[in-house]
């Protein structure tokens, strides 16, 4: 497997920037979500619903930017004033037709209009920006990197991307768009979180039903990660806090990130037969809880990641245990973290917990950051290279034919 070629990443934007020192947080990570294009807008719409559903508190504000008015009108949770239609002078609200070069041009031309909507966000309350886009469409793949570059120039907060790769059966133009824009998006954000539709589409599933389920998978995995900074949930306090600085530290090296998630249903007893997180009750099976969490960390890492990769290529990682407080176990989190250290060979593996009351599932979230050995990206880059070579051949052939026609025209003129 050929490792992902070196992509220039701005590593100067590390977590030691002043705003973190001034604003130590003890709550969930606060994000300004900006969905760019059809897929990006739908995912942000789902993020808003999910944040309310779990009372996560990780969404400070949600915006949707698009060149197609019908896509914006179909959103249910993004406020009307936070829906921005760009490119009216160029495409009159009808979209860019999967032309990501046009998408980038429109975004650059109307960046002030987007900024006007962002100005309504209380950015002093925001820990980071998350620009969400489908990498196959024209508006998202073209415009998202333009917006990310703009945000990095103006704000001190990290600017992350959430890029959604198209399935290979969606069509060649979408794969080509992803191949063209992926490298640019990685370069313009502080870290690119990736979700690969190709891995998550089910055989025989309808397109609409498939995307609804996939969007749910996206927001559940990434939403739980960002919500995990909550120190207290109800009357329960996390023993080992995963706050916003831990997430930012894990993402600080730049590059590409992927997330794994695994759960197991457990019996709960709200009557208190089980101990608290400290494990002081004799009825609490500390060994069983330790083994369960360790196993879940392994399943989350070696199972279906949002982007398949060689785990050993990760630079940094974060392990988060979720579930009923009485079913969480600090020793299990630590053993899972140590196991991930061994798998990645990295000493930068962090761990903690996110107690959630009222549920019957214990889970493990694993964030792998700075991954490089990624077969899917190798494939995209190959597509991009071949497309570039084909384009150059077609252009050269067209120029030769034109020159030949000109020469023939000159010969005909000489005959008469």
From TrEMBL:
InterPro entries assigned: CetZ, CetZ_C, FtsZ/CetZ, Tubulin/FtsZ-like_C, Tubulin/FtsZ_GTPase_sf, Tubulin_CS, Tubulin_FtsZ_GTPase
UniProt cross-references to Pfam families, sorted A to Z: CetZ_C, Tubulin
Top-level taxon: Archaea
Ranges for domain Tubulin/FtsZ GTPase: 30-234
Biological processes per GO annotation: cell division; microtubule-based process; regulation of cell shape
Gene3D superfamilies from the UniProt entry: Tubulin/FtsZ, C-terminal domain, Tubulin/FtsZ, GTPase domain
A single cellular component GO annotation: cytoplasm
Compartment(s): Cytoplasm
CDD domains per the UniProt record, alphabetical: CetZ_tubulin-like
GO molecular function, one term: GTP binding
Entry binding sites for GTP: 38-42, 138-140, 170, 197, 215
Key words of the record: Cell shape, Cytoplasm, GTP-binding, Nucleotide-binding
Annotated family: Belongs to the CetZ family.
Function, as annotated: Involved in cell shape control.
HAMAP family, A to Z: CetZ
Protein name as catalogued: Tubulin-like protein CetZ
Source organism per UniProt: Natronorubrum tibetense GA33
Gene: cetZ
